[in-house]
Structure formats: structure tokens, C-alpha cells
User: What shape does this take?
Amino acid sequence: MSNKDWWSNYGSFRRWHECPSRPDPGEVLLFSLAKQGIKPDEHVSYLMNLLHLQKSMIYNMLRGEGFDTITRCRQLVQALKIHPPLLGIDALYYPIERHKEWWKSCGFSFNADEQGYPLISEVVLYMRMHRTQTDEEGRVKVWSQVDLGDATDLKKETIYRMEHDKHPLTLESMSRRAIVASALGTLAGENEHTLFRLFGLDPQAYRVPVPACESIVDVHFSPKRLTDKTLLDYHRQQGKHFTLSYTHHGEDTVTEALDWVIH
Assistant: This one.
């Protein structure tokens, strides 16, 4: 990763210790609650009503725990208008209601689950059956459940449940999804980012290269209320930059000027 994290335009969040390619979800949550105008003394009751969790679990979340559940992260993204990749969720096909069965345009025939995403059990089975390896005698064989288990440090029984359970709780874990997607995507080459999106994950959040044509445009947070004073300050600042550029070389103000344009 570069010194400038990909999420820097959304906030100065620390890297998450559980997945350094993602911002700390606890900080993202607190930032998003504040942006929605939810006061600190309202955080617990708000999240309890939103997520239908016990108070103790909400306290854990506010301490930065419990962000590895994909359904929970999807709920937070929707309720708090969070940019999906900040919580590891794919943004290219979000919200899913506007991109119904998008994967069929990529040549896949997966059914949709209750939330509108590709049925994950079908995705795992299909991808495993299309992953091959060559033995010592030069024979090509399809990956077995044991092979996928060996590649992910998961038991064969766990892989079986992933492929045959229509709602596998074993894949509610985003970190586990990322491990399985990574193992299946090793030979996917330039299509690895699509595989991660089939798993509902944002490729960039897991260090998977994304083609420029599929990159998500940065969304910059604007002031909650645009006041006359704010506009006047911007006008004066832009006037200062124009004067310096018109009367001098102005090179020293280019970076600052670009920041003001973004604001």
C-alpha cells in the first residue's frame, strides 16, 4: 500500500488491525453516526434498534469489534449512507436493487438470495469446479472439497456446508469470504476482482487490483449545512489563489488550491 491510504478522501481513519488494507470500521462507524447527526448518548439505543442486538454487543461494536459479519455491515452501509468499501462491501453494484442479477451479464447463471445477491453456495461450488490443478503425471484434475479446504485451512465438512447450504452461516464472516475468494481467484488473473464482487466484497479493500473502468469515483463529504459564511470563505480563498497565480508563478499554492476546489 502507498503512504496515502485509498480511503483518505473519506476520512483520516487508521488501518484496521484485523485487515490493514481496510480502514478501522469502529472509526468509520463513529464518523458516520456523527455525520448523520446522531449524538453520542444516542449511539447505543440507535444501533440496538437498527441491528436488533443486545446492549453488550453494541458496546463491543462501539469499541471496534463485531465488524466481520457481512449482513451487519450491509445494514450499516444502508442506514448510515456509508460508502460501501469503507466496510469492505462492494460498491460497483450497490445498491443491489439497481443492479439485479448483474452477474448474468458476466456469463454466470447463479440464483439470487433473499437479499438480491448471488447465492453464495452456488458461487463457491461453481468456482471450485472450475479450478484445476495438474498432478505429477501431467493429468489435469478439478479441485475437490479437500483441495479447497487445504488452500483455506478449512475442514472438508466446512466446505461441504458452504456448497450445499442455501444460507451458509459459515460465510457470514467477511474474512472467511475473502480467504475463500482469494484461494479460488489465484488463477483468475484479471478477473479476480469480479470473483470478489460475486462474494459481495470490495476488491480494493482486499488488495485486489481493479481496472480503471470499474473504479468507484471518490465521494467527498461536504459540510452538513452550507452557510453564507462558508461560501464567502471559499470565495475569498479562491480569489487569493487567483491573484497569486496571476501576479506570480503561484506554484506554491497549487496543492492548497486543489484541496479548496474539492471542498
Q: What stands out?
A: Residues 218-224 have pLDDT under 50 and may be disordered. The two ends are 26 Å apart (CA to CA). The beta strands are 15-16, 19-23, 132-134, 140-142.
